[in-house]
Structures are given as C-alpha cells and as structure tokens.
Design a protein that fits this description.
single chain, six-stranded parallel sheet, alpha/beta, disordered N terminus, binds zinc ion
Length: 221
C-alpha cells in the first residue's frame, strides 16, 4: 500500500457517513452527469458497511428551480449569474422531484441509512451543502440531527466532489464536526479548475482526504 495511507479508522457510534447525491442524474447518462460518477457506487456500498450511522442526501428540485439555466431567458448551462445570495452556476435541469433522474442509482444499497435528507426544494435558492442552503444561512437541520445523535466526526463520500461534497465538508467543519473526505469514493465535475480549488480549500481547512481502504475492515482494506 502507498505511503499516503496513514490512518486506520474504525468508525463508531460517534461517526457518520454522509453519502452525497448518488442519483441517476449525476451518473453517466444522467442530465448532469459527473464523469465516472457511477464508479463510487460499489465503493460507497462497501464503506457504508463500516458505519452504524449513514445519511443519504438527495438533490430534489422543483421544475422551475433557480439553478436551472432553463429558468433564465438567454442563459446557458454552466454560466454563472448573480442572484441575491451571491454567484450561482446555472445547471441543466436535473434531479426534478419524483423523476427517474432524481432517484438514487439503482445499485446503491445501504439499507441501514437512517435519514434521507432532501435539499434544493426552495425554488429560489440552491443547496449544494447538506447543512446549509447556498445563502450559507438557511440550515437544513442536519447539524442539529447529528448533534442530537452524538455524532462528532463526519465522513463524506459521493457526488460531486467539487460542489456538494465540498460545500458539505466546509459547513460540517463550520458546525464544529471533525471532517474527512473519502477521496476515492467521490468524483468531480471539474468546472474551470473546481477540483483543484476544492483540494486546496480542504487542505487549507485541515480536512484530510482519506482512501476508502483506511476505514475499518468492512471497507475492504
Ligand atoms: Zn441541484
């Protein structure tokens, strides 16, 4: 094994695995496909076996959502516009409530996930993070849920590394959890260098990137 492997963590009841947005629209063939996004599915399934606490997040937008380019005349997907809470990247329509694209990938199998947290429901605000909407002020309630469950450490996996995983990691840190990103259980979109930005930000915040093999025997180490 490589020298990078420096931890061997056995998750306990104070740890949670948050599986971010492993949904059809973010996988190859989906409306906003993350390159090789489906590759995280078997890794995440295996990882989840090492955790007692698992939360799934699900991007879940109304049809006229502000983050959709189609909601703005003359705008195209992947442009950035100014909205009341700051800059917003415009996306192809994706993860529309109750559509097949919003469903979890069919091979995602985590029966013991206790909470499915839906986000992005407000038509006027996007929500990359599992903890706060994109105004960085409106909480989803996940922080309170985790504290009430005595969780102290948050492990993140899923899609996309450079958006929803990144914002979730930053906000988990802001909420005073100890945070880890399981790098090989994430894939990125990489819009204008956003993967490199994410890695730099995680490093600056002291959020380690782990390999799935560093998490307990059940993770396949
Ligand atoms: Zn979305």
């Amino acid at each position: 094994m490589s020298a990078k492997i420096n931890a061997n963590i056995t998750p306990d009841q104070h740890d949670v695995l948050i599986v971010v947005d492993v949904q059809n629209d973010f996988c190859p063939g989906g409306a906003l496909a993350v390159p090789r996004g489906d590759e995280v599915v078997p890794i995440v399934n295996r990882l989840a076996g090492a955790f007692r606490n698992v939360v799934l997040t699900q991007d879940w937008h109304p049809r006229d959502h502000l983050s959709f380019a189609s909601s703005h005349a003359g705008k195209r997907a992947f442009e950035t516009i100014a909205v009341p809470y700051g800059d917003q990247v415009l996306w192809p329509d994706h993860c529309v409530q109750e559509t097949p694209g919003a469903a979890f990938h069919h091979a995602l199998q985590i029966r013991h996930a206790a909470l499915v947290l839906r986000k992005g429901l407000d038509p006027a605000i996007d929500s990359y993070s599992a903890f706060y909407e994109n105004d960085r002020e409106t909480p989803t309630g996940l922080g309170g849920y985790l504290r009430e469950r005595s969780v102290r450490r948050v492990f993140l996996a899923g899609l996309a590394l450079d958006f929803c995983v990144r914002y979730s990691a930053e906000d988990a840190r802001r909420e005073d959890f100890t945070v880890f990103v399981i790098a090989d259980a994430c894939r990125g979109i990489d819009l204008d260098g956003s993967v490199a930005d994410t890695r730099a930000t995680l490093a600056r915040l002291g959020i380690p990137e782990l390999g799935a093999g560093e998490l307990g025997a059940a993770a396949g180490a």
